[in-house]
Amino acid sequence: MVGTRPEAIKLFPVINQLKAQTSAAVTVCATAQHRHMLDQVLRLTNIVPDIDLDVMRANQTLDQLTARLLQNVGEVLDQVRPSRVIVQGDTTTAMTGALAAYYRRIPVSHVEAGLRSGDIYAPWPEEVNRKIIGTIADQHFAPTARAAEALRRENVPEERIHVTGNTVVDALLAARSIVDSDPRLASRWDSIRAAHGNRRIVLVTCHRRENFGAGILGIADALQTIVKRQDVAIVLPLHPNPNVADVLSERLSGHPRVELITPQDYTDFVGLLSLAYVVLTDSGGVQEEAPTFGKPVLVMRETTERPEGVEAGTARLVGADRDRIVAETFRLLDDDDHYSAMSRAHNPFGDGHARERIVKVLLDA
Ligand SMILES: CC(=O)N[C@@H]1[C@@H](OP(=O)(O)OP(=O)(O)OC[C@H]2O[C@@H](n3ccc(=O)[nH]c3=O)[C@H](O)[C@@H]2O)O[C@H](CO)[C@@H](O)[C@@H]1O
Fold this sequence. Notes:
Layout: H1 5-21, E1 29-30, H2 35-44, E2 51-52, H3 62-80, E3 85-88, H4 92-103, E4 108-111, H5 126-136, E5 139-142, H6 145-153, E6 161-163, H7 167-180, H8 183-196, E7 200-205, H9 214-226, E8 232-237, H10 242-252, E9 258-261, H11 266-275, E10 278-281, H12 284-289, E11 297-299, H13 308-312, E12 315-317, H14 322-334, H15 336-342, H16 354-364
Parallel strand pairs: 1-2, 3-4, 4-5, 5-6, 7-8, 7-10, 8-9, 10-11, 11-12
Helix pairs in contact: 1-2, 1-7, 1-16, 3-4, 4-5, 7-11, 8-11, 9-10, 9-14
The chain binds the ligand CC(=O)N[C@@H]1[C@@H](OP(=O)(O)OP(=O)(O)OC[C@H]2O[C@@H](n3ccc(=O)[nH]c3=O)[C@H](O)[C@@H]2O)O[C@H](CO)[C@@H](O)[C@@H]1O.
The ligand CC(=O)N[C@@H]1[C@@H](OP(=O)(O)OP(=O)(O)OC[C@H]2O[C@@H](n3ccc(=O)[nH]c3=O)[C@H](O)[C@@H]2O)O[C@H](CO)[C@@H](O)[C@@H]1O binds next to helix 1, helix 11 and helix 12.
């Protein structure tokens, strides 16, 4: 089941590995909870969904989305009658996929299991989605030892927990090799580099619900202050949600050193990441990717269910508070020792081989 961009990014390595290693039928069901950004990833990775539910509607409430998904996914399961359902992460797609499978007694595998913030309202509603999936799944693919530990605390039996690494690192490395073999994609990376000359690129992404309103205003204030520096350029792929896009465009568009761009194809975004000096984000996936390229991450959230980056010293939590964001960014720009300590290229989230471990468990079951 795939519904959103990050699910497609994190599942394409597993889908491709499964297809390469088994003659069992692999049916990809896209719910298209997010249409455009999901399609960008599917196109790039040559995945053509066998079933496309196209459930995205403008301004849909969580109730409407959940009800529609549960019903539609249930119908798909009745039609396909799979022997197992694989879901990833914490979206409404993943939660309803697991629930519809449970209603039919079909076993569920959970990729990226065991992430917990401990607060059911941050991230909302993902924290509870994860817990529901965790209650149902019989195979839990925990990206890290810490995630496995969270599952043990919830009494998940040891033999059902598999520490695999996060498939996002597999995806990132695959994206880099797609670029290496395609001169057109590689030349886009060169033009990004050329466009900014000697300026240091601060790459920004934000879209979390918890930051809508006051949070986005704080972030916009911080970015306006940071970009007063002549040695910095801000590059910001704008999430289409109007709660984010409207505020940030109003406050930042037209500035000569701010590039507000549309959501990027995954390979182009990976290019931006590899060229950035510092990353400011509230995204889950970006926190997990940046350490592979040794890029310090300032996480614009108060909590994270991905504390491994903070513990490894490659990320810091700065919330959505203007002064904290500005102070930590300036420290990275001005203090070389601090910068090199945070940019140690070690990724605590994965080693790029998660898909092989996951597929081995799937096929051995
Ligand atoms: C609560 C929480 O943390 N939930 C997470 C959140 O996922 P996220 O925060 O990781 O989501 P995004 O930031 O949208 O995606 C990030 C990916 O997109 C790539 N990217 C980015 C910009 C661009 O222009 N082009 C791109 O290709 C980028 O490299 C990265 O891989 O929501 C998901 C679904 O609700 C959850 O499953 C997931 O746990």
